[in-house]
Amino acid sequence: MELAAILDGVDRLKAMTLPRGMPPTVWRTYVADARYLAHHGMAAAALGKGWTALDLFGISTDEQWQCLAAWIGGRRDEHGRACLLLTEIRGDRSLPYAVHVRDGRHSWHYRQPAPADAVLPWTM
After folding, report:
1. With contact defined as beta carbons under 8 Å apart, do 60 and 115 qualify?
2. What is the C-alpha separation between 92 and 90, in angstroms, rounded?
3. Global pTM value
4. What is the pLDDT of residue 110?
5. Please, which residues bridge with residue 88 across strands?
6. Is residue 82 part of a domain?
7. Closest to 56 (Cα-Cα) out of 17, 90, 10
């Protein structure tokens, strides 16, 4: 999926109705964090490091899985930053991940395969 389509989809989130079963505060936080990723260059950088749109913005009924926008959870540092994208080299593999800038020593997010029911919310 190209970046322009992702940006358009993220912008449509503000006007969408709350997905069934999602608490309003969780949805508002998710939308704010999705917009942060999209409009502060994080989505473009992540796509360039091998992340997918589902990795960044997907939603699922599987509560054990989180996309990056959900994982951020509204946390920002004093400069308004939410996360940094990093890459770890393990043998012959590169593993992209994110860390919270506010508490990076304690919280990081590795991409996980999306569950079968994961979708981009603007396609629902």
Report:
1. yes
2. 6
3. 0.91
4. 92
5. 95
6. no
7. 10
- State how many domains the chain has: 1
Of 37, 54, 63, 73, give the one whose Cα is nearest residue 111.
Answer: 54
Report how far residue 12's alpha carbon sits from residue 19's, in angstroms, rounded to the nearest whole number. Answer: 13
In a domain, 92, yes or no: no
Model confidence pLDDT, tens digit, residues 30-76: 999 999 999 999 999 999 999 999 999 999 999 899 999 999 999 99
Contacts with 5 (C-beta within 8 Å, 6 or more apart), sequence order: none
- The owner of tokens 């913005």 is 57
Q: For residue 45, give its domain range.
A: 3-76+111-123
Q: For residue 123, what is the enclosing H or E element?
A: none
> Which pLDDT band, with edges at 50, 70 and 90, does 20 fall under?
confident
Please report which residue ranges of the chain form alpha helices under DSSP H: 3-12, 24-39, 42-48, 53-57, 68-72
Please check whether residue 101 lies inside any domain of the structure.
no
Burial class (CB in 10 A: 0-12, 13-18, 19+), 59: buried
- Residue 62, domain member (yes or no): yes
Are the C-beta atoms of residues 120 and 11 closer than 8 Å to each other? no
